[in-house]
Structures are given as structure tokens and as C-alpha cells.
Design brief:
alpha+beta, Alpha-Beta Plaits, Ribosomal Protein S5, domain 2, binds alpha-D-galactopyranose, about 375 residues, 2 domains, four-stranded antiparallel sheet
Length: about 375
């Protein structure tokens, strides 16, 4: 990959001498969905797939972007004096947003860049290609301009730019997972205060299989922002009867005792998911520590049901993938992963059942939905780095 982006750099810009190559990973979330903007826990891990960039400083203030994933767009040109979001900037709004967020914190680039990007995260799969691009950008800015930021700062800056430059009110999970990834470990992160622990996720006799539905419904961003405001409203209502900072502060029992403060049935369901999913995540990590993979899998399944019925962020295609996965012998757990409305499922599958899993789920998906699913047996990798 390193050579590939460098060769492209030479082809596009003429001279790759002095260009650095950087990488930041995508992520998959094992459990803890739609809890990260509710002060709850998440349990994601960084993948070995992600986004690569060859980057070289210029002597003027120009920015030139080229993506090997969108070659038909050619070179997209901009300037350090034009760090504002625009439709025509397309994907370059992500790196530009990060540059803008750095500048807002007093870390101003004193010259422009030539950049070639290449990512191997399937497009629209919900494995956080945008977060990996944000963390990647922060990482090369830090390296090239000597900005003093930690990897946690890179996660925060990535999220800030996505919220305020790209209009997606995401939580911090994706950027945190990309920036803080550790090989063979998942990250148990408390989004209330960003305290975290690494938990080994080398599954004895089983694999993590990500299944791509190859659908991405257009409601992703709009519905995401709606869910977020429903939770905020439910929190305000609950705060009239109980002292909490986020839905993640409540146990299931406390929620049941106070839920009548929420004056709308839909909001009760949304808040219920946030509370129960957070507790499930805490329990799942405990189960994993005790090597109780069976319980971990059951909690993954319960997470799916809650996301489908109470949070309502699943869709027909994803439900088919999960239902069919549950039917296969050797499947320990399976659920939707990421923001929802398409994208991927994550399943834990016993080693000797993986081939059967792909065949059975793939065939049933084709028959029931008429589409082809893709399967990736994923590996958990490290965070961002210079190659
Ligand atoms: C998206 C967001 C994350 C998180 C998940 C749902 O991936 O970017 O912050 O909220 O959805 O868990």
C-alpha cells in the first residue's frame, strides 16, 4: 500500500521525494451502540483496514487532494484560506474540517499540502472510513507541523470537525477507536469522562466476522441527528425527577422507576435503549473478562433486538442478515454495528463454522433480499502511524 500511494503521488504531482506515508484504521463496534452521545460505554476495536495517505508540504498555501477511491474526481484543489465546508468539496470536507479545527485551536499550518489518499474500508460500510480519514489527517498534521496533540486530542478534534464542519452530530466512539486502537484489543470506553481500558479480544476458537449488507439508506445522517435530539429531550425530562448528567448514569431499575417523567412513548423507547445498552455493554465486558463468550454473544443478540425495536435504527436488509446468522450453528452472537440504516453486522463465529456461515447467510440474503452480502473475517489492529 505504501508503494502504491507513493507511485500514485509521483504520477499525479510529479515528485514524491520527501513525501511521508501515514495510516489510520477503521473500526468495528462489538457492543455499546448509540450510547456514546448519552454518556454511556462503548466497546469498539480498530481494524487492520483503514485509510492511507502520502503527504508532502508545499511552499505556497494551496491544498491539493487526490483520492484513489474517487479517481474520476481528479485533483480537488483548495487553499488554507478557504477552510469552509462546501458541497463541491465532496470528501475533502473531512480533511479540511480537521485543518479548520486545528486552526481554531491556534495550530495554524504555515504552508499547504499535496495529498494522495487510498482507503481499503469498503465504501458506505459503516466501518468508519470518515473517522479514519479525520484521525489520519490529524496525525499527519501533528507530524508535519509539529503540533502538540495527543491521540485522544486527535479523536476529539476529529469529532469536533465532524460535528461542526460536516454537520454530523456523531459521538466520539469512531474517532476514539481509530486514534487509540491497539492490536488484538477492544477499547472499553466510558464516554462520560473518556476513561478507558483495553480488553484483550483474542477469541479462543472463534472469529469476528463482519458482514456487509451493501446497502446504505439515505436517512443515516438525518435520522442519527433525530435520535440524538430525542435522547437529549428524554434526558431533560428525566432530570426533572432525578439528578443525572447523562442516560448512562442510570441503571435499568432506576430508569423504570423514573421513566414516567418522559412524556412521549417514542422517547421512552429511545431512552430505554440507551440505558439498557449501556448496562449490557458493562456486563458484556465483564463476561469477556471471565471468558464467558456465550454470555457475551447473548448480550450482542439482545443489543440487536433493542436497536431494532426500541431505537429503530435497523432496516430490513440488516435484520435478515442477523436473523439468518442466529440460525447458523456455531454463531455465538450477531448484531448490527455502527450508526444503522444499512452498513454491516458483526458476528462472533466459531472457527469451524465460518465457511458455513458465509454460505448460509450469503445464500439466504440473496434469496430474501436479492442482494449480495460481503464477508470479512477481521483482525484487530493498532491506531494511526507513519509507515
Ligand atoms: C456512528 C457515530 C458514533 C456512534 C455510532 C452508534 O458510528 O459516528 O459516534 O454514535 O454511530 O453507536
Amino acid at each position: 500500500m505504501k508503494e502504491m500511494v507513493l507511485n500514485k503521488f509521483t504520477e499525479i504531482y510529479g515528485d514524491a521525494d520527501g513525501a511521508g506515508v501515514y495510516f489510520a484504521p477503521g473500526r468495528v463496534n462489538m457492543i455499546g451502540e448509540h450510547t456514546d452521545y448519552n454518556g454511556g460505554h462503548v466497546f469498539p476495536c480498530a481494524l487492520t483496514i483503514g485509510t492511507y495517505a502520502a503527504v508532502k508540504k508545499r511552499t505556497d498555501r494551496k491544498l491539493r487532494f487526490y483520492s484513489m477511491n474517487f479517481e474520476s474526481l481528479g485533483i480537488v484543489e483548495s487553499s488554507l484560506d478557504d477552510l469552509t465546508p462546501s458541497d463541491k468539496a465532496g470528501w475533502t470536507n473531512y480533511p479540511k474540517g480537521v485543518m479548520w479545527a486545528f486552526a481554531g485551536r491556534g495550530m495554524k499550518m504555515d504552508c499547504g499540502l499535496d495529498i494522495v489518499l487510498n482507503g481499503n474500508i469498503p465504501n458506505g460500510s459503516g466501518l468508519s472510513s470518515s473517522a479514519s480519514l479525520e484521525v489520519l489527517t490529524g496525525y499527519y498534521l501533528k507530524d508535519l507541523y509539529g503540533f502538540e496533540v495527543t491521540n485522544v486530542d486527535l479523536a476529539k478534534i476529529g469529532q469536533y470537525s465532524e460535528n461542526n464542519f460536516n454537520g454530523m452530530n456523531c459521538g466520539i466512539m469512531d474517532q476514539f477507536a481509530s486514534a487509540m486502537g491497539k492490536k488484538d484489543h477492544a477499547i472499553f470506553l466510558d464516554t462520560a469522562d473518556l476513561s478507558y481500558q483495553y480488553a484483550p479480544l483474542v477469541l479462543d476458537g472463534a472469529k469476528i466476522v463482519v458482514t456487509n449488507s451493501n446497502v446504505k439508506h439515505s436517512l443515516v445522517n438525518s435520522e442519527y441527528n433525530v435520535r440524538r435530539s430525542e435522547c437529549e429531550k428524554a434526558l431533560e425530562e428525566l432530570q426533572t425527577v432525578v439528578k443525572i448528567n447523562g442516560l448512562g448514569d442510570l441503571t435499568e431499575e432506576e430508569f423504570e422507576a423514573h421513566k414516567s417523567a418522559i412524556k412521549d412513548e417514542v422517547r421512552v423507547k429511545r431512552a430505554k435503549h440507551a440505558v439498557y445498552e449501556n448496562q449490557r455493554t458493562i456486563r458484556a465486558v465483564e463476561a469477556l473478562k471471565k471468558n464467558d463468550l456465550k454470555l457475551f454473544g447473548e448480550l450482542m443478540n439482545a443489543s440487536h433486538v433493542s436497536l431494532r425495536d426500541d431505537y429503530q435504527v435497523s432496516c430490513e436488509e440488516i435484520d435478515v442478515l442477523v436473523e439468518e446468522a442466529w440460525k447458523v450453528d456455531g454463531v455465538i452472537g450477531s448484531r448490527i454495528t455502527g450508526g444503522g440504516f444499512g452498513g454491516c453486522t458483526v458476528s462472533i463465529v466459531k472457527d469451524d463454522a465460518v465457511e458455513q456461515f458465509k454460505e448460509k447467510v450469503g445464500a439466504a440474503y440473496k434469496e430474501r433480499v436479492g442482494k449480495t452480502a460481503d464477508f470479512y473475517v477481521v483482525e484487530i489492529g493498532d491506531g494511526p502511524r507513519k509507515m
